[in-house]
């Protein structure tokens, strides 16, 4: 009797469990779906702005980027993901300037550390959140970031300097020549004066060397009688 009772009790528990499960399933039939239906939902997909998907150069409305090809990002990249090549261009004013030729970025080796972005002095780089970067080959992951054609430099060339008035030019020339002639004449006069002073200085030098010799001669002559006097004095004693 007890076994029949246990049997119906287990059947009742099973039915209750089935109804509970069916209730959960039935509820999910009518609640809104939360699963992302990718790729059908591309148009409505919401990716966080801070998601780091791909490095790019920032472009303004005119198509200019701010990179000055300083190479700091390349130096700071820990695994050689960035390779820059530069070129020299001539500006409208005739000066030469180093500019970016190619900015190559290998997405396949990027660790998304963002060191390049944070150290760029021009704030020329940023990460986009475009996460669809799957390719069939590794080579396709190497990208040129300055892909847009460089807009023409529309800054006007500096105006040529106005030619100098010929009369003014001749006056300046004459003044310069007069000044040079004056300096030359002063130099020649100074050289003549120095040459004239040189023999006089030599003579005075000779005189000054002879005088002490004569003086010493007098002193010797004066000393001789003194010695003789001393000898005579000794003999008398
Ligand atoms: S992106 Fe920035 S750091 Fe890198 S070369 Fe250009 S200006 Fe320099
Ligand atoms: S995010 Fe890091 S690894 Fe990637 S290019 Fe920049 S510095 Fe190199």
Describe the structure.
This protein is of the alpha+beta class. Among the domains are: about 55-145, 2-Layer Sandwich (Alpha-Beta Plaits); about 165-195. The protein contains 4 helices and 5 strands. The strands form 2 sheets. The chain has a 3-stranded antiparallel β-sheet, with no helix packed on it. Strands 1-4 form a two-stranded antiparallel sheet. The longest helix is centred in the last third of the chain and has 71 residues, at about 165-235.
Q: How does the SSE layout of this entry go?
A:
Layout: H1 2-30, E1 54-57, H2 72-76, E2 82-90, E3 96-106, H3 115-119, E4 125-128, E5 142-144, H4 166-236
Bound molecules: iron/sulfur cluster (2 copies).
Order of helices and strands: HEHEEHEEH
- CA radius of gyration: 52 Å
Strand percentage, roughly?
5-15%
Poorly predicted runs of 5 or more residues: 209-237
The computed structural class is alpha+beta
Q: Helix coverage percent of residues?
A: 40-55%
Strand order of the largest sheet: 2-3-5
| Count of extended strands | 5
Looking at the overall shape, the CATH architecture of the domain at 54-144 is 2-Layer Sandwich
The number of helical segments is 4
Largest sheet: 3 strands, antiparallel
Overall mean pLDDT stands at: 83
Distance between the termini: 183 Å
CATH class of the domain at 54-144: Alpha Beta
Which distinct ligands sit in these coordinates?
A: iron/sulfur cluster
Question: What is the oligomeric state here?
Answer: single chain
- What name is given to the CATH topology of the domain at 54-144? Alpha-Beta Plaits
Silhouette: rod-shaped
């Amino acid at each position: 009797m007890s076994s029949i009772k246990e049997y119906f009790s287990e059947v009742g528990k099973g039915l209750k469990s089935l109804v509970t499960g069916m209730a959960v399933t039935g509820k999910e039939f009518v609640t809104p779906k939360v699963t992302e239906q990718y790729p059908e939902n591309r148009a409505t997909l919401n990716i966080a702005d801070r998601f780091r998907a791909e490095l790019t150069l920032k472009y303004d409305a005119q198509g200019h980027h701010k990179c000055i090809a300083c190479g700091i990002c390349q130096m700071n990249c820990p695994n050689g993901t960035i390779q820059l090549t530069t070129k020299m261009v001539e500006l409208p004013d005739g000066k030469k300037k180093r500019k970016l030729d190619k900015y190559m970025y290998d997405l396949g080796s990027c660790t998304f550390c963002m060191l390049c972005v944070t150290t760029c002095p021009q704030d020329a780089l940023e990460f986009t959140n475009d996460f669809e970067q799957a390719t069939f080959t590794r080579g396709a992951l190497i990208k040129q970031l300055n892909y847009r054609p460089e807009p023409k430099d529309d800054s006007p060339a500096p105006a040529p300097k106005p030619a100098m008035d010929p009369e003014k030019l001749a006056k300046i020339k004459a003044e310069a020549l007069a000044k040079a002639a004056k300096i030359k004449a002063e130099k020649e006069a100074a050289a003549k004066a120095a040459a004239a002073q040189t023999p006089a200085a030599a003579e005075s030098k000779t005189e000054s060397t002879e005088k002490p010799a004569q003086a010493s001669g007098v002193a010797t002559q004066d000393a001789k009688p003194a010695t003789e006097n001393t000898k005579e004095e000794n003999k008398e004693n």
